Amino acid sequence: MIALPVRARRVVPLVSRIVAAILGGYALAALASVAALALPIARPQAVLTGMLASFALYAGAVIWVFAVRSATRAWVGLLMAAAVLMPAAWVAWHAGGSA
């Protein structure tokens, strides 16, 4: 295993959290907005619900990424939340415009 310099040991987890907050939070918010289309409500209402929920979820994901103990836990948490939303988003994607 390669030994990292002291500065890199501090910077790498921070950069990882920043990437997790920006990209992971965006991906989670996008999944939530698509997954909302699988809700048993009218399509325009589902779109609005998904859009509003995505803003709250993105903000919560960014806060959570920096609140957890390690960058690894941040990534694992984002992946777990994405795994929960993925089945509903998958159904909505494959339903297309036929809902």
Your description of this structure?
This protein is mainly alpha-helical and 99 residues long. It has a domain at 40-94. The chain is 81% helix and 0% strand. Helix 1 packs antiparallel against helix 2 (43-67), helix 1 packs parallel to helix 3 and helix 2 (43-67) runs antiparallel to helix 3 (71-95). It starts with 5 loop residues before the first helix and ends with a helix.
Average predicted confidence as pLDDT: 90
| Distance between the amino and carboxyl termini | 52 Å
Shape: elongated
- Number of helices, where a helix is a run of at least 4 consecutive DSSP H or I residues: 3
Largest sheet: none
**Which stretches of 5+ consecutive residues score pLDDT under 50?**
none
Number of strands: 0
SSE pattern, N- to C-terminal: HHH
Proportion of beta-strand residues: under 5%
Radius of gyration: 17 Å
Helical amount:
over 70%
Q: By helix and strand content, what is the structural category? A: mainly alpha
Q: What does the secondary structure layout of this molecule look like, with pairings?
A:
Layout (H helix, E strand, L loop, with lengths): L5 H30 L7 H25 L3 H25 L4
